[in-house]
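lol ok so funny story. i was supposed to be doing the assay writeup but got distracted and ended up predicting the structure for this chain instead. priorities right. anyway since i did it might as well share w the group, maybe its usefull for someone
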Amino acid sequence: MKKEVLIITNYFPPETGAASNRISHLAEGLEAREFKVSIIAPLPNYPRGKIFSGYRGQFKKTTIEQGMTIHRLWLYASNSKNKIKRLLSMLSFSFSLAWYSAFNKVPDTIIVQSPPLIVAFSAVLFFKSKKSKLILNVSDLWPLAGLELNAMRRNFWYSMLERIERYNYRKSDLILGQSEEIIHHIKSIYTDKDTQLYRNYPNFKPTINTEYTIPTHKIKLVYAGLLGVAQGVLKLCQNLDYSKIEFHIYGAGAEKEAIDYFLKNNQDLPIMFHGEVERADLHKILPAYDLAIIPLLNRIYGSVPSKIFEFSKLGIPLLYFGGGEGEALVKSFNLGWVAEAANYKALNSVISQIELGMLSNSRRDQIKETADNNFDFNSQLDTIVDFI
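and the output, tada:
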């Protein structure tokens, strides 16, 4: 008889982004290993902040996809910068989790994605039982990340979130952390807690592409991902030196309208905004670019963007602009170039030193080989399977 695993997450396809990809890979990997997998997620809404067409007007929608049962529950959708609206969105999904837990059986193993911290707390509170194993998958450290992003201050609300964070850790049987910094942080709170490094390695086979052509003029620099406040793509547009590059942008998110406005008022700049593209299609498009930039507006303790692993698997040289553990990985695996976080003068200086010959096919082959040898999704997943 198959072991049952329930995954509770705030993000899941058809939503896009690193969090959605990470959880879908985990679910598909467990299903392929003969587990009976079910998922609880909100009705799709991210990153647009509106319920997707085909899901509107419903309190719950259950589907069977790739052998997995997916329960999508109601929430108040919002991507507003207004803290009250964002809190209401999280609390609404927490309400749906409480409703679901009251009428459904809890399986032997539960995997909870964190953040959002309040959603993770609700999942732990309502679904944790004496008989079940609870695995907490921590991809960012909240509320600490909010403090570093200047989105929070040390006050009563921050203290409450710290208590919630500690509760989630305390109730978990195993904690997965996407970075060494996350593991270190958790161990500083609960020394004896079982933890495991679980990077955001992608699980896809790159499409066979025609041989890459080295540019003869400007370097085609590309950003592909969430257009959120933490990434700071708008500020990139405003501060890049375009004498040697053209900048291509793919994605959606909170900064989209501001980027659109900036481009309308700066049509002389070589910036091309391509909008949101399906991930599978993006994997076919990206290898044509010369260099991929991975920015963070501020260095965030514990954060290692999954794009490091995804773009490396595609063989694209990286320009990392975020500091911390991500910077150390790019350096140690020789995946490209790094610039001091939040220092746009340093960033432009690094770009000016990149010669066209440095973007060769052999360089890209070396990056692909490094990714294949060191960022393997399946061997990493095997260690979780042993715990379940």
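The longest strand covers residues 36-42. Residues 4-198 form a domain with the Rossmann fold fold (CATH 3.40.50.2000).
back to the writeup now i swear
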